[in-house]
Amino acid sequence: MKHAFWHERWSENRIGFHQSDFNRWLTKYWPTLELSGEEAVFVPLCGKSRDMLWLREQGHRVTGVELSDLACRDFFTEQGVDIDAIEEGAFHRRERDGITLLTGDVFKTTRPLLDTPRAIYDRAALIALPPEMRVDYAAQIATLTELGDQILLIALEYDNPRNEPPFSVKGDEVRRLFSESFEIIELDSADLSEGRFENQREVVYRLVRR
Question: Domain containing 172 — which CATH number?
Answer without folding.
Answer: 3.40.50.150
